[in-house]
């Protein structure tokens, strides 16, 4: 198993990002996703303690255009949520890859990370959309 002692970020085809550091993973949506959604007006976060498998509905983002599910990118247990998004959902638009994160997962299957894209692969994937 690769141990990520320095934060390493990976991406899904559903436009979630995952920054892995040791046995924790911070999860959010990408610039591509927030831009496609438009102005975000509501975020429903998962509960601390909730457990997810890849592809599970983990959160909901509502914008002036549409509502969209945010899917779990890996197996994990929620250890923290970004409560800022409850009062300021627009933070996702303003800073999707820093302040607009959704939750932190305790990684329960490190093998999931191998199925995610690195930044270069994600950029190439976005060019095909």
Describe the protein.
The chain is of the alpha+beta class and 129 residues long. Helices cover 19% and strands 36% of the residues. The protein has 4 helices and 9 strands; from the N terminus they run E-E-E-H-E-E-E-E-E-H-H-E-H. The chain has helices spanning 31-37, 84-87, 91-94, 119-127, and strands at 8-11, 16-21, 24-29, 40-44, 51-52, 57-63, 67-71, 76-81, 103-107. The strands form 2 sheets. A 6-stranded antiparallel sheet has the order 1-2-3-9-8-5. The longest helix is centred in the C-terminal third of the chain and has 9 residues, at 119-127. It is globular. The relative contact order is 0.24.
Break the fold down into its secondary structure elements and pairings:
Blueprint: E1 8-11, E2 16-21, E3 24-29, H1 31-37, E4 40-44, E5 51-52, E6 57-63, E7 67-71, E8 76-81, H2 84-87, H3 91-94, E9 103-107, H4 119-127
Antiparallel strand pairs: 1-2, 2-3, 3-9, 4-6, 5-8, 6-7, 8-9
């Amino acid at each position: 198993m690769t141990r990520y002692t320095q934060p390493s970020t990976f991406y899904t085809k559903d436009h979630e990002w995952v920054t892995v550091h040791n046995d924790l993973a911070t999860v959010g949506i990408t610039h591509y996703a927030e831009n496609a959604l438009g102005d975000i007006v509501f975020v429903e976060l998962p509960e601390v303690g909730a457990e997810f498998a890849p592809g599970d509905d983990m959160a909901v983002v509502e914008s002036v255009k549409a509502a969209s599910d945010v899917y779990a990118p890996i197996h994990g247990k929620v250890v923290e949520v970004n409560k800022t998004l409850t009062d300021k959902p627009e933070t996702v638009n303003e800073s999707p890859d820093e302040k607009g994160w959704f939750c932190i997962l305790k990684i329960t299957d490190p093998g999931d990370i191998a199925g995610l894209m690195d930044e270069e692969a994600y950029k190439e994937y976005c060019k095909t959309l």
